[in-house]
Write a structure and sequence with these properties.
The structure holds two protein chains of two kinds. By secondary structure, chain A is of the alpha/beta class. Chain A is built from eleven helices and eight strands. Chain A has an eight-stranded mixed sheet, sandwiched between helices. In chain A, a hairpin with a 2-residue loop joins β5 and β6. In chain A, α4 runs parallel beside α5 and α4 runs parallel beside α10. Chain B is α+β, with helices and mostly antiparallel strands. Chain B is built from 22 helices and 24 strands. In chain B, the strands form five sheets. A five-stranded antiparallel sheet of chain B has the order 1-2-5-4-13. In chain B, α21 links the parallel β21 and β22. The longest helix of chain B is centred in the middle third of the chain and has 20 residues. Classes of the chains: A alpha/beta, B alpha+beta. At the A-B interface, α1, α2 and α3 of A face α21 of B.
Chain lengths: 271, 801
């Protein structure tokens, strides 16, 4: 694949970068990234990935656009209310960069579909809003051997972790499993500042691009914690946990199962 | 009374004198055709399709030609050319079929009467046009013609203005109706008055052709005297930012497209500020352009004839008066329109018209609709003038209700696709006698470039080609909805494609339906928006089918041609775009055949696709393969291994081989390579990718070029580097992007020479390359040479990473 003039012009500002160049750009164009969730985190991540010329983007989300989404899910506009999120987002991405192929899945990620879908992509971005989905993605990426970016936001805080399954600490190394119901406040109770989604979603896109390009150091074995009110980034060092039920020495999770989805009602909060 | 329009600057006189020497060198074999071409084209002299004859394009600033000038043009055409002059849509008059050895004489004799073709062609300031009604129109804010003269005088004086990235078209409109087409010019002015001060609004970056664009407004109002500074600023913006490396995307509109409107205006303001700081001396603008000749008298010997011809009551006279005579804003005076069939006028007729001009203000005007005008004719002289014009050529007093405007087309344009003028004749014949429908002419271009101005036509056509029944069919794309007007201009859009022979039928049907459909008082634009575009789309579908050759061979012949349509003999030129369509069709056919497992057909279509770029259009399969071997395999555009494939295909054709299945991969590779070559074609129909190398190395994208137009490869003591990349005219940081991409394509240790402009480029690019780890060996200034626009630098780099 060689870049045509339109592409050279479009991507010139990143081709300039030593870490990208023409070869890197060609690599991006040949790459495939899956975004699980086309909401708060997925919107900015998908827009920047499309803008950067990641050749194929997959969007999986079963929700439709709701008025309460518009405060932070910037791929969706007011006239999109009622439209499936993947369709609304796909239209924006196509308008931004017609050179990008968009694959949409109008369904929620479940134990039945996610393993097979994730396997078709080079990198996965977890833009979901509930614990069961986050553990599901963590497990699916482990079984499918796909690097992914985990993230979450609540109130004025955000967190971020990149996982190279089997090689660096995974989400379960840290938490084992979902917290008991009610232990963690949901968005509907706690609220969230819209720009948090932008900050963290953009960092996820950055990790995806770095991973695809093989550039720099990924956010692995360390969790980044962002506190907006103090405007502070903190890092927590992590290690792979030998007793991790998924990637530890004696794993107890050997197939993909979905945790009880009522554990967190965060998804409800977006409605 | 003025005795001139614009004064020929000294530099033009010198260049015209020097031109004779260039022709002599060329004729003596001392200058290559390419080197000579570089001298000839900016002189306004083009090679015609008919080999070894040339066309001289004489600029008429604002369309004005004085009588002695018109007579001289007529004389020169009779003595050295075809005896038929051609009025262009940019208000020039062309002398056709001049032998190259006569072109210096023609130029010199034009100079004697204050005319020159300098800048009529090439990459520079073309004729500065003005409203055809400038000076007489009741709606105009003021007469813009003197500004056309003054701008011509100013712009033509600087030789650098003939070495711009591409052509640069300037026009002035007397009001917002835009009869001068300023909304689609590179630089367009609209007359306005603000608090009693005459001035202009200014638009830049418009143009018709590949990717037509409506111009952007860069100034809401400037006092009239500022046109020079503004023109200089826009021209410099173009000079600096126009893409000299890609002729197809070099016009100012591509700069606007590339940098965006806001940045475009910012760049312009920067240039303007600089121009103002330089306090350049600008020419005077004449206060009023008048050539009224009081000495005119109807000779007494003519008086009886005049009386006997006083047929003022005859229907023909009345029709003429209604159709071709318009009142001027000057009371009692009339403008008389002299319709020319497709802009052509015979030399004796032009001479006669020049004589008759004395009955009015003494000057002739060439219009954008390729007609001529006489002006300031007193009412009392109209019957006399009618009689004289009719005696000169009855066509001059015919009042056509429908009119088409066409480019020169394939008959003289070296790469016209269709015979646009043949179609225009057929359209006129079909619609003559029909009631008026459109308030603008039907515009026809012979190819997708817009010399016939189809993008601004309410209804227009541009030439195309299609394949049917294994043969080529001349065809036209139907365009609808174009319009002019300050702030309202829009480009026509395509609604379908029909064979050339189906166009008159389509128009006939459209005409009658539109006359029924039109509501009282509805404008053409409103009718087309409400109903016409859809109707034309339906009609294009209905008339789009091509019957089989044996049923209707006529469909396979263009208007005015008895032979089957062919693209053979087409060389590179303005109209290359149409040829690309045909190649693209063939490659599409090859790919489809490949997919359907029709391997022979795929091979044949792939072999045939690019031959048209070599001016060939063989009919028989055997000839196709032979030409492919000769023109594509032998020069290694395609790998030599393809010869075996061609042989196998022929064996298959002759029945000596049962199948080509074993060669499927080779065929696929062949189709891919042909496609790659196609994508790399430049406007001169040359491949930009290199030939296939003998070594197993992949082909390098930019092999060192052997000196371009007349330039010798430079030595300067050092051996030339094996690879060279010319980034002159490419801005920061795109030049660095290109350099980087080129280096990536090379092997570590390879040496690349990069040519860079002075200033920012040479300051930034070598530093950035070094910063990214490349080895910058030298940065050397290259001396300014004759044809070079500016000093530049040669930067030698060794690839490290």
């Amino acid at each position: 694949m060689t870049l045509d003039n339109e592409q050279i012009e479009r991507y010139s500002r990143q081709i300039l970068l030593r870490e990208v160049g023409g070869k890197g750009q060609e690599k991006l164009l040949a790459s495939r990234v899956l975004l699980v969730g086309a909401g708060g985190l997925g919107s900015p991540a998908a827009l920047y990935l499309a803008a950067a010329g990641v050749g194929t983007l997959g969007l999986i989300d079963g929700d439709r656009v709701d008025r309460t989404n518009l405060q932070r899910q910037i791929a969706h506009f007011t006239p999109d209310i009622g439209t499936p999120k993947v369709e609304s987002a796909a239209a924006k991405l196509a308008a931004l960069n017609p050179g990008v192929k968009i694959e949409t899945y109008t369904e929620h990620a479940t134990a039945d579909n996610i393993l097979e879908i994730a396997g078709r992509y080079d990198f996965v971005i977890d833009g979901t809003d509930n614990f069961s989905a986050k553990f599901l993605i963590n497990d699916a990426c482990y079984f499918a051997e796909r690097p992914f970016s985990h993230a979450g936001i609540l109130r004025f805080d955000g967190q971020l972790l990149t996982v190279l399954p089997g090689r660096t600490a995974c989400y379960r190394c840290l938490f084992g499993g979902p917290p008991p119901a009610g232990a963690v406040p949901s968005c509907s109770q706690a609220g969230v500042l819209g720009s948090m989604a932008g900050v963290i979603g953009c960092l996820q896109a950055t990790e995806a691009l770095k991973c695809l390009l093989g550039a720099g150091e990924l956010l692995t074995d360390r969790m980044l914690i962002f506190e907006a009110l103090a405007l502070r980034f903190r890092e927590v060092k992590l290690r792979r946990n030998p007793r991790c039920p998924l990637c530890g020495e004696n794993p107890t999770i050997t197939t993909l199962v979905e945790a009880d989805p009522v554990v967190c009602d965060l998804r409800e909060a977006r409605r | 009374m003025n005795e001139r329009t614009w004064r020929i600057p000294e530099s033009v006189v010198e260049d015209v004198r020097a031109y004779r020497g260039k022709v002599e060198q060329f004729l003596a074999g001392e200058a290559s055709p390419v080197a000579f071409r570089a001298q000839r084209v900016p002189m306004g002299i083009y090679e015609q399709r008919e080999n070894d004859t040339y066309m001289v394009r004489v600029r008429g600033a604002g369309g004005v030609f004085l009588p002695d000038q018109a007579r001289r043009i007529a004389d020169l055409s009779e003595q050295f050319g075809s005896g038929v002059l051609h009025v262009t849509t940019r208000q020039d008059i062309q002398i056709h079929r001049v032998l190259v050895e006569d072109t210096p004489t023609v130029c010199e004799r034009l100079l004697d009467v204050g005319l020159s073709p300098r800048g009529g062609g090439g990459n520079g300031v073309r004729n500065v046009t003005a409203c055809p009604l400038a000076g007489v129109c009741a709606d105009e804010v003021f007469d813009v013609a003197p500004y056309a003269f003054a701008l011509t005088e100013y712009l033509v004086a600087d030789r650098a203005n003939f070495n711009l990235p591409r052509k640069f078209k300037v026009s002035l409109s007397g009001c917002g109706r835009d009869c001068a087409l300023s909304s689609v010019a590179d630089l367009g002015f609209f007359a306005h008055e603000r608090e009693g001060v005459p001035g202009f609004s200014v638009y830049a970056g418009g143009g018709m052709g590949a990717q037509s664009a409506v111009a952007l407004r860069v100034e809401e109002f400037i006092p009239a005297g500022d046109i020079f500074a503004v023109a200089e600023a826009v021209k410099r913006l173009f000079d600096r930012h126009g893409d000299r490396t890609n002729r197809n995307a070099a016009r100012l509109r591509f700069v606007a497209q590339r940098v965006g409107e806001e940045e475009f205006r910012r760049l312009y303001q920067g240039e303007l500020a600089q121009v103002r700081r330089e306090r350049i001396a600008f020419p005077q603008i004449m206060r009023e352009f008048r050539v009224s000749s009081s000495e005119f008298q109807v000779a007494s010997s003519e008086a009886p004839t005049l009386n006997s011809e006083l047929q003022t009551g005859s229907p023909a006279y009345r029709a003429w008066k209604a159709g071709s005579v318009r009142p001027q804003k000057q009371a009692g005076l009339s403008l008389v329109l002299l319709p020319l069939a497709l802009g052509d006028v015979a030399a004796p007729v032009l001479r006669g018209i020049a004589d008759l001009a004395a009955a009015g203000d003494g000057a002739l005007r060439a219009t954008q609709d390729q007609d001529l005008q006489l002006r300031a004719i007193p009412r009392s002289r109209l019957p006399w003038l009618y009689a004289r014009l009719r005696a000169l050529d009855p066509g001059l007093v015919a009042a056509p209700t429908v009119k088409s405007v066409a480019c020169a087309g394939a008959s003289t344009c070296k790469l016209g696709l269709c015979l646009s003028r043949g179609l225009a004749g057929a359209v006129d014949a079909t619609l003559t006698g029909q009631p008026a429908l459109l308030d603008a002419p039907i515009r026809i271009s012979g190819c997708p470039n817009a010399c016939g101005q189809h993008p601004i036509a309410p209804v227009g056509f541009h030439g195309a080609a299609q394949r049917a029944d294994g043969k080529l069919v001349p065809a036209y794309t139907v365009m609808v909805g174009g319009r002019l007007g300050e702030g309202e201009a829009a480009l026509a859009r395509s609604v379908g494609k029909v064979p050339a022979k189906a166009v008159p039928g389509l128009l006939r049907e459209f005409w009658s339906a539109a006359l029924r459909e039109r509501r009282d008082g509805e404008s053409t634009n409103a009718l087309l928006d409400r109903w016409g575009a859809d109707a034309l789309r339906d009609l294009a579908r209905k008339h789009g089918a091509v019957p089989a050759y044996q049923d209707a061979p006529d469909y396979y012949r263009d208007w005015g041609s008895a032979e089957d349509f062919s693209l053979a003999g087409r060389g590179p030129g303005e109209c290359g775009a149409g040829v690309l369509d045909v190649i693209s069709l063939d490659i599409g056919a090859a790919r489809q055949a490949l997919q359907e497992g029709k391997l022979y057909e795929a091979t044949l279509a792939a072999a045939r696709a690019l031959l048209v770029t070599r001016g060939l259009e063989p009919k028989k399969d055997r000839e196709v393969f032979a030409a492919f071997s000769e023109h594509l395999i032998r020069p290694r555009w395609v790998s030599p291994g393809a010869q075996a494939l061609v042989d196998a295909a022929l064996d298959f054709r002759l029945g000596d081989r049962d199948s080509l299945d074993d060669l499927r991969d080779d065929i696929r590779a062949l189709v891919a390579r042909v496609q790659e070559l196609f994508r790399s074609l430049d406007s001169a129909l040359q491949f930009r990718v290199g030939p296939v190398e003998e070594a197993p190395n992949p082909p390098t994208p930019f092999p060192r070029r052997e000196g371009g137009a007349g330039a010798e490869p430079e030595r300067r003591g050092a051996e030339p580097a094996p690879y060279e990349l010319d980034l002159r005219g490419v801005l920061c940081p795109m030049n660095f992007v290109r350099a980087k991409l080129q280096l990536e394509a090379l092997e570590t240790g390879d040496i690349l020479d990069i040519l860079l402009d002075d200033g920012e480029p040479v300051r930034n690019v070598p530093a950035s390359l070094a910063e990214q780890g490349q080895d910058v060996l030298s940065v050397a200034a290259e001396a300014r040479r004759g044809a070079e626009p500016a000093p530049y630098y040669r930067v030698r780099v060794r690839k490290v990473v």
